[in-house]
Amino acid sequence: MPPIPILAVALPVAFISSILEDQQQFIDTDANWVDEEERNNNNALLSSAPADRASIISCLQRIDSQILAFKTEVLEKINSNQDSFSTLYQNSGELRERINNLFTEFENVSKEVNDPEKGVKSKLLLSLQENHDVKQDAQNSGAVTEMLNYLSEVQLCIKRFGEYLADARIEEAAGIVRGMDSLLEISPIISDKRIYIFEKLKLKLASMKDMLDQTLDDLLTRAIVFERIDGDIESGSILTVATFITGPDSATHLSSIFVSLTEVNLVDMQLSRLKKNVMKYLIVPLLKHRQSWHASIKIEDDITSKLIVGSKNDNYNESVDPLFASLTAIFHFIYNRILGGPNPSLFSGPLNPSPLTTQYVSKFGNFISRDLRELVIKEYLSHMIPIETSELTSFEKIAQSARLFEAEMRRLEFMLESQSSEEEEEEHTLGAYVAKVDIHFTIRKRDRLLELGRKVMTDEVFESVVIAEDVERGKENLENSIKEETKVTEENAEKEKENKSENNEGWDFGWEEDWGENRWNNQGDKDKKNVTITNKETIQNINSEISILEPERYEITAKSKALIELTIDILNEARKLNVQSGIRLYNATLDLFDLYRAIMPVYHSNKFTDIPALAMMFYNDCMWLASELLKIQKQYSSPQPTSSNDVTNLGNDIEEDGWGFDTENMEEVNNVIGDQWSGQNVYYEDMANQLRELGQRWFDIQIETQKSVLKEFLDEMEGLHLMAREERFDVCHRVIKQIVHTLTQLNKVLKAVLSPALRYTALGLLVDSVIKRMIDDVEDLYDISAEESQQLNLICGMLFELGGLFPKIGPHKINMHVKNWEKYRHLTDILNFSLAEIMTRFRNKELTEFKTTELENLICALFADTSLRARNLQEIQEGHPL
Question: How much of the chain, in percent, has pLDDT values that exceed 70?
């Protein structure tokens, strides 16, 4: 059987594989290259299934390589046996002929295979290309067919969508839209206009969604209607729900609307919108008018029902909390009439709604739960938190209603069940809020306290309250002071006697002249007598001084008294609460006085700066508050009082009304709040110190302000030089007179505000600032004439009038508060003394207030340079006598 000719068809796979597996044909010199059996095998292989393009090309490459290998093998054999081959080739004609025939045949075969026009190889490649083109055309035809089928299906969907929508078959229409979504995800369009076609289809789908969305929205708007009663929000609201929405030719069930919304993923948007309307039309107005409104359900027929939120009717049940009863009615209505759940009022246990209803309820609950909780707390529960402990038991009814409402919301599945019993009172639940009533009570009490405190602090009226301390204490202090003075007087008398004895040495008269036997003893008796007389006179003055002793009285503002009363009321409330709540209320009192320290110096800064009496009264307030807080600390750190009498003694002039410890209904209160706080944590020492520091700071500010005023007066004198001139004397005279008048008037102002001790302290600081300046101005003079000395003495002496502002004896004498008073008094004496008198006082240790350099400068300014002055200066330079 001859070989099958190679035409423009696909070569068989088996034939190609045999060539690739290197199955060589045995060359038979007697049988025209290939034996018959091998030819038959090859023909059989050619009859097998066609090979692919890659296999054919690989086969051609194999043929080329075999031809090349054959040529190479022949040449190698000829080269290796060149001599023998050449001899045989020349001598044997048969061999030469056979070799020539072999090469000729080989060339012919090679030409048949590789000829570019008629060769097998070129024909085979051409056949492969034609085969590829045929396959590509077939594939393109299949793709076009598939695309046409796809577009036909899309067109059918669009047509059906229009029909379903026209027939109000909204569930089927929604299914079509969902199917279109799926079709666009697997689009088989592969043409060069694929993007254009796909965009057109997407636009069509978007248009279909819009049409469906609008239709569903219109249906839902007709099915669920929110409206005002009489068009006025203040009159109430009505929610009307229709379970069937009828059209010209069809009717749509409310549940179908929600199913369709779910199909096209629009249910979340509509439930969110429903939540906003429920809050706007129902819940917010209900909370705003919670005292007079309630929610009621009215079923008109099988299709239509109404939820009315408005004024209560006469038959309204007040046995339950009105607000939570209304909220329960609202959510029952939404659950049953809108979301398609069973009527909750007909079942006491689980409701077992459909899966879709469960899905809707869960989503709606997620949307509304947090806002509902925050609104109920803000607009209702926070206002119902009691301010007094006596109201805590009544709040339990509201707390129980809140817990029952929350349990019902969980049963309806608007809220999720708690995961474990320990977490039942979750942080974000109404139950958790009402469970922490003690915390909210203390927070509200604190806010109320700070609100009242701020109102007191910012009041522009400074009404004064007189605080009078025990006069007997003042008498005792005065007696002790006078006794101390008497003791000092006796000691000074003894020292003076010793000094006289020492100074007699070297005098110009004899010891025994006119000096009898008992003269010394008589003189001693006389000295003792003088001291005794002095003491008797001093003691006699005690009673007269006590009789005119100024009472220890001062003024505070009514603000301070009000703050202490608030503090005591709060602490009395705290002792009725549990430990944590009691400590919170105690901390609220600390916040109150922190607020006081922050507001008072800032809010009333201008008044305190411009009005000395108010500044000093603020000082009194701070000191009095500090004192009262320490009294409160002491009282509340002691065992708990059993009656109001144990606490009424705190503070001065505090009414007993606000101090009582109310034990009524304490057992019921303890059931709500737990174990009571005993008050042992009360600690006000730090706050008292801070208040004292604040008061002292403003006292110092006012003193410095008044010092600045006095300094401005003194600056007008421009020193004390040239006092012999009349115009200079007049200026200084006017200034000193103005200073005396200013301090006298200030004393009158402070007398009504400060206690005597503090008033004398304040005056002493001011007088001393003037005295110190006058001393410095005198000491600055380097040359003082006799006339100027007299004028200076007159000017300086005018300030002695200020001594009348202080008592003559006792702890508040002027020299007890004016540090430089004695020095100033001696300075005025020096201006009139002779040098001898000055030296006498120096030797008698009466000028110890002066530094030796000060005395030297004064003597140099007052007296001419003489040998006597030089000797005295020499003596002074050696220092004060011991």
Answer: 71
Distance CA 241, CA 303 (A): 8
Q: Tokens 């965009």 correspond to what residue?
A: 199
User: What's the token pair of residue 15?
Assistant: 């034939």
Q: What digits encode the pLDDT tens for the residues 480-535?
A: 555 555 555 555 555 555 544 444 333 333 333 333 333 334 444 444 434 444 44
CB-CB contact of 174 with 211 (8 Å) = no
Residue owning tokens 């019921």:
668
Estimate the crossing angle of helix 612-637 against helix 579-603, to 10 degrees: 170
Predicted TM-score (pTM) of this structure: 0.61
Q: Are 804 and 752 in contact (CB under 8 A)?
A: no
The residue type found at 543 is N
**Chain-wide mean pLDDT for the chain?**
77
Tokens representing residue 298 in the block? 């009215």
750-759 CB burial, b ≥16 within 10 A, e <16: beebbbbbbb
pLDDT grade for 116, boundaries at 50, 70 and 90: confident
The answer, yes or no, to whether residue 847 has pLDDT greater than 80, is: yes
pLDDT at 255: 87
- Name the strand (E) or helix (H) holding 246: strand 244-246
The owner of tokens 């995800």 is 185
Q: Of 41, 43, 56, 54, whose CA–CA distance to 11 is shortest?
A: 56
The answer to whether 380 and 284 are in contact (CB under 8 A) is: no
Q: Residue 169 — φ and ψ, nearest 5°?
A: -90, 75
Q: Which of 237, 260, 93, 95 is nearest to 172 (CA)?
A: 260
- Output phi, psi for 236, to 5 deg: 125, 180
The kind and range of the H/E element at 556 are: strand 553-557
Start-to-end CA distance of the chain, whole Å, equals 162
Q: Assign 3-state DSSP to the chain and report helix, strand, coil percentages, each to 5.
A: 70, 5, 25
Token pair, residue 142, equals 């299949």
31-70 pLDDT, tens digit per residue, is 444 466 766 665 665 555 566 667 667 776 777 777 777 7
Select from 573, 592, 593 the least CA-distant residue to 582.
Answer: 573
CA 566 centroid distance within chain: 28
Angle between helices 437-458 and 558-574 (to 10 degrees): 170
What is the amino acid identity at position 45?
A: L
Domains and CATH numbers, the chain: 13-134 (no CATH), 701-877 (1.10.357.150)
Determine contact, residues 740/797, Cβ cutoff 8 Å. Answer: no
Tokens standing for 114? 């590789």
